[in-house]
Amino acid sequence: MVVWDYALETGCVAIDAEHREIVQLMGVVHEAVEQGNAAQTATALDRLTLRLAEHFEHEERLMAACDYAQTLLHKEAHATFLADVAKGRKALAMFGLSDTFRQWAFGRLVTWFRFHIKALDMGLGQEIRRHEVSQEGAVAQL
């Protein structure tokens, strides 16, 4: 099961709160898988997908406000992850709680998200904090 790790904090309060919520939603997916309930897993995965999309849109608004240099790379990573989650959802619909789906849900889903935070969101968090200082908190309103 996935748990929040404070080493994943970016220093941007809003992003960190969203990340914690996403980790909680991943936990709901995992619980449904462990219970062997494909319908609950599908519902939980749909909720997670929606929250991921909202979170990524929020990050992308923050990137635009900061004129973030890594925006294109970051947006491509978001699109890639959402496509992967959609494939996982499709696999669930077609094959149920297969071993392959379980490996994806407990492995790739969590690993990718953690990697994304460490590889990309940490830098974004630093840029947001820098921009907040130079713009007297204007970014915090997004």
Structural class: mainly alpha
Tally of DSSP β-strands: 0
- Report the mean per-residue pLDDT as an integer: 93
CATH architecture: Up-down Bundle
Number of helical runs? Answer: 4
Largest sheet: none
Task: Look up the CATH topology.
Answer: Four Helix Bundle (Hemerythrin (Met), subunit A)
Number of spatially distinct domains = 1
| Proportion of residues in extended strands | under 5%
Query: In angstroms, what separates the terminal alpha carbons?
Result: 32 Å
| CATH top level class name | Mainly Alpha
Indicate the low-confidence ranges by residue numbers: none
Fraction of residues in H or I helices = over 70%
Shape call: elongated
State Rg.
Answer: 16 Å
- H/E topology pattern: HHHH
Please name the fourth-level CATH homologous superfamily.
Hemerythrin-like
